[in-house]
Amino acid sequence: MNLNSIPAFQDNYxxxxxxxxxxxxxxxxxxxxxxxxxIEENEWRPEAIxxxxxxxxxxxxxxxxxxxxxxxxxxxxxxxxxxxTTQVVKEGDVFSVLGRRFSVFATPGHTLGHICFFSxxxxxxxxxxxxxxxxxxxxxxxxxxxxSFCKINALPEDTIICCAHEYTLGxxxxxxxxxxxxxxxxxxxxxxxxxxxxxxxxLPVTLKNERKINLFLRTEDTDLIDVINKETxxxxxxxxxxxxxxKKDNF
Length: 251
Known about the structure:
There is one protein chain. By secondary structure, the chain is α/β, with parallel strands linked by helices. The protein has 9 helices and 14 strands. It is globular.
């Protein structure tokens, strides 16, 4: 199985999994044009689309792709029913594509109906977790997003996280304003800065790496708690998560 990322818009990635026979699935195709180009160049045969949530930069290309490949199944949450979804899926559902087993879990926060798809080792998490950060809370609450992060953090450390935006450099700059002396953050920032200077991608990433450098996964970290306690005393990890999200909103 091969994992591919197709750049779209300013900083989106559309993910494609393909097998040795050229069959493929497409994740969050916000724009059909680069996907159709990649399909032609690679001689892929699309069988399914996976949608994580309803925002247009994730679903905008679905109709055009269905016009070209009308037999594709489109899996998505209820909030994408009017975006081309043909098979609504929810927390706990399991289905097979390309001979792979995919499990679905609800990850509200960015939107209320946001879902993630997991087929070991691949996690397609849309706009929930980004490398070094987390999605904006457009519809959900910080508490909901914290619980969504707990679900992701419960996966194996070798999970390959396929998030939908190239936000890593900005996320690491923010993290260093919170813990400027943290060696893991500084090392990863240097690495990411070098990659982006060469216009290279920073994704996908492993959960093992994210546990080191993503402050939103480190709400029990004593160094982070010490920083927060200089400003306010927050006893619960979801409260510290909310504090971080508010700081990032104003960064």
